């Protein structure tokens, strides 16, 4: 197994799979965390067919303990991740006036609190060596909310704010916290497709210390 690991929390079709392929092409092993164990096994096989070392670690993104436990198991099975990609959110459809407050709280626990939990779990090893990237999938709803997607709008706005704070705190320590904000609908073959998003994550990770961007906006 190689020494470079990219961990993806919220692995799935689309952005997660594209990011896995992009970092694998640069020689990274891929650690994948998701609720669906069967899908993780499928991604393991798909990446193995490309000659990529990949391993899945099932976890419930709504449970702090489950995510932390999965990351601990991952760190026992693989070297500490050099890169963490947080790609989890809840695309609930509801206008704000009828949005169940408990549902919003549950969604924020996955899309925002979960992001902080995952970041905190990998930070000690990154701080110890003075380098690493913690990158997040954002959305244009953070800047232009849509009433019918009130929960996701709030999640992405709160996540963006959190990432900017992490960026400010961690940059002096050599750890790059940043967000890729997808301001539009992903569509294969367009200027806004999965491969372009994956390239943006790689661009952020590749930036040298002292030149860290806190955000790339794709539209």
Unreliable sequence segments: none
Shape: globular
Radius of gyration, CA atoms, in whole angstroms: 16 Å
* First-to-last CA distance: 37 Å
Helical residue percent? 40-55%
**Full CATH superfamily name:** NAD(P)-binding Rossmann-like Domain
Domain module tally:
1
Percent of sequence in beta strands? 15-25%
The structural class is: alpha/beta
Largest sheet: 7 strands, parallel
CATH topology: Rossmann fold
Oligomer: single chain
CATH architecture verdict:
3-Layer(aba) Sandwich
Roughly what is the average pLDDT, rounded to an integer? Answer: 95
Q: Would you list the SSEs in sequence order as H and E? A: EHEHEHEHEHEHE
Strand order of the largest sheet: 3-2-1-4-5-6-7
Number of helices: 6
Q: Mind telling me the CATH class? A: Alpha Beta
What is the count of β-strands?
A: 7
What's the short version?
The chain has 219 residues and is of the alpha/beta class.
Which labels suit this protein?
219 residues, alpha/beta, Rossmann fold, seven-stranded parallel beta sheet, 7 strands
Please give a structural write-up.
The protein has one domain: NAD(P)-binding Rossmann-like Domain (Rossmann fold), CATH 3.40.50.720. α4 packs parallel to α5. It is an alpha/beta fold and 219 residues long.
Layout of secondary structure:
Elements: E1 5-9, H1 15-25, E2 29-34, H2 37-48, E3 54-58, H3 64-77, E4 83-86, H4 101-129, E5 132-139, H5 150-170, E6 175-182, H6 194-206, E7 215-218
Parallel strand pairs: 1-2, 1-4, 2-3, 4-5, 5-6, 6-7
Helix pairs in contact: 1-6, 3-4, 4-5
